[in-house]
């Protein structure tokens, strides 16, 4: 952040803004210009002129620039994790620290959007999951859970041109779930555009506050994973998935219960050949 403000000769009002932003970067993604003006006791026009002083067109571009600069260094995020681990507070305290991500996620949860997401997942002809990178684990978990309830699930686990082979099987009654963290990839852009063309619905699970993706998705759920410069946690996204799965199971209660009974029968019948691992 310091590089954006380096060698700048600010007016008194702009100096207040630069100082405030430097000290409160964790809250900037959630703020608008009026919030900054009130916090720094300056006018809205002063805030608006500030962005040009640091080479940005507006606040939105500033947020994107900060995100891009911070996220370019994976080593910085790893260092944040190492610093926490070596902070002398113990493993238990480090585990409890992730509870704040759960709180942030719960605070920003839109119940109407959550209910709509449950409806999409529970009523889809097929749920297609796209979770690149670390989000692959989230796609695997959602696949495993929904399949138990009789929901047809397919994984869109290939990128580049190979993604097209998967898209051939998507139908208008289907739903595409995109785990969109960090930034919108070309594959994500294709998925949103394709869904609109095919006439199917999309569910976006993201930690992005400033992004064009939420406008492209039919339903968006926010989940906190840590600050831009931190090693991102999957605690809150996993909790979001478990909440979705439980609600989908309730929606498909009869089918889910029948599936559970059949699973129990199969395990008992074939436990000699395929014993359950401890």
Explain this structure to me?
- The protein has 278 residues and is an alpha/beta fold.
- The protein folds into two domains: 2-71, Arc Repressor Mutant, subunit A; 99-253, Rossmann fold (3-Layer(aba) Sandwich), CATH 3.40.50.
- The protein is built from 15 helices and five strands.
- The chain has helices at residues 2-5, 12-23, 33-40, 44-53, 59-71, 74-85, 90-97, 99-107, 111-123, 136-148, 163-167, 186-198, 213-216, 235-251, 253-269; strands at 127-130, 153-155, 175-180, 201-206, 219-222.
- The protein has a five-stranded parallel β-sheet, sandwiched between helices.
- The longest helix is centred in the last third of the chain and has 17 residues, at 235-251.
- The model has no long low-confidence stretch (mean pLDDT 84).
Task: Provide a quick synopsis of the model.
With 278 residues, the protein is an alpha/beta fold. Helix content is 57%, strand content 8%. It is built from 15 helices and five strands.
Write the layout of secondary structure elements.
Blueprint lengths: L1 H4 L6 H12 L9 H8 L3 H10 L5 H13 L2 H12 L4 H8 L1 H9 L3 H13 L3 E4 L5 H13 L4 E3 L7 H5 L7 E6 L5 H13 L2 E6 L6 H4 L2 E4 L12 H17 L1 H17 L9
Parallel strand pairs: 1-2, 1-3, 3-4, 4-5
Helix pairs in contact: 2-3, 3-4, 8-14, 9-14, 10-14
Pfam family, one: SIS
Protein name: MurR/RpiR family transcriptional regulator
Keywords: DNA-binding, Transcription, Transcription regulation
């Amino acid at each position: 952040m310091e590089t954006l403000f380096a060698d700048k000769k600010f007016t008194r009002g702009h100096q207040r803004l630069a100082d405030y932003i430097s000290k409160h970067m964790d809250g900037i993604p959630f703020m608008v210009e009026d919030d900054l003006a009130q916090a720094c006791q300056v006018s809205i026009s002063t805030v608006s002129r500030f962005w040009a002083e640091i080479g940005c067109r507006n606040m939105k571009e500033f947020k994107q620039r900060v995100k891009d600069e911070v996220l370019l260094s994976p080593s910085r995020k790893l260092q944040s994790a190492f610093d926490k681990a070596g902070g002398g507070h113990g493993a238990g305290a480090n585990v409890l620290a992730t509870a704040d991500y759960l709180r942030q996620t719960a605070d920003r949860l839109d119940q109407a959007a959550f209910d709509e997401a449950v409806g999409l997942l529970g009523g889809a002809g097929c749920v297609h999951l796209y979770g690149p990178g670390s989000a692959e684990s989230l796609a695997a978990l959602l696949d495993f859970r929904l399949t138990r309830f009789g929901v047809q699930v397919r994984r869109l686990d290939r990128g580049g041109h190979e993604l097209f082979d998967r898209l051939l099987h998507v139908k208008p009654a289907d739903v595409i779930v995109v785990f969109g963290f960090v930034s919108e990839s070309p594959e994500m852009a294709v998925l949103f555009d394709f869904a609109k063309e095919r006439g199917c619905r999309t569910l976006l699970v993201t930690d992005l506050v400033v992004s064009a993706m939420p406008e492209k998705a039919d339903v968006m759920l926010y989940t906190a994973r840590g600050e831009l410069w931190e090693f991102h946690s999957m605690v809150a996204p996993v909790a979001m998935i478990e909440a979705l799965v439980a609600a989908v199971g309730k929606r498909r209660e009869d089918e889910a219960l029948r599936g559970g009974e059949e699973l129990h029968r199969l395990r008992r019948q074939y436990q000699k050949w395929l014993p359950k691992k401890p």
